[in-house]
Design brief:
Layout lengths: L2 E6 L8 H11 L4 E4 L9 H9 L4 E4 L9 H8 L1 E2 L3 E5 L2 E6 L15 H8 L8 E4 L19 H10 L3 E3 L8 E5 L2 E5 L8 E7 L2 E7 L3
Parallel strand pairs: 1-2, 2-3, 3-4, 6-7, 7-8, 8-10
Antiparallel strand pairs: 1-11, 5-6, 9-10, 11-12
Length: 214
Amino acid sequence: MVMRFLVVTDIHGNRSVSKWVNSVAKENNVDYVLMLGDITDFGPNSVATEIIGGIKLGVYAIPGNCDPLDLPETISEIAIDMHGRGENIDNIYLAGLGGSNPTIFNTPFELSEDTIYEKLRPISKKGMILMVHAPAYGFNDVIPSGLNVGSTAILRIVEEFSPLLVLSGHIHESVGIIERNGTTFINPGPAKDGKYAIIDVKNGKVSANLFGSS
């Protein structure tokens, strides 16, 4: 059985995303939407309610660093909140953590590397799909200056648990698909600009495509 996911991240309050997500999902027979954070642009939570509530499929979501700290509670009222949680979809295990490692911008939802590791490790399993807002250090994490700004704690989790798939956003410029040691790392790019990924998972194998228009 193939499980097909539509992956979006970095919506930053763009309410039009719900409309095209529904259209893309219908056209491509998507099973679920995975939402990787920065749903709002520094709040309010009602924006996230409007965006997520406008999506007709089941949504699994985490907050981003630009979302309010209490957004997981709002998500849980209208979708599946994956912040610090694991969830099975048939025979596929998802683990999620929102927010980001520390940035120079002092955004609302930042976590220390120790906290990220402490929250992720108990919910992690071999071969999981890992939903995170911030990327693992060294993967889809290069900012325009050329620096890698991903999370060392998430990289540590990857090294320990060898996820099938690591889904992240956060770094708008570092869109791409990287395969390394059996793990596929994907940053679909900001949904506020019409970017998304469609990912098929079947028998422990991943097939993914990135799209750049709404």
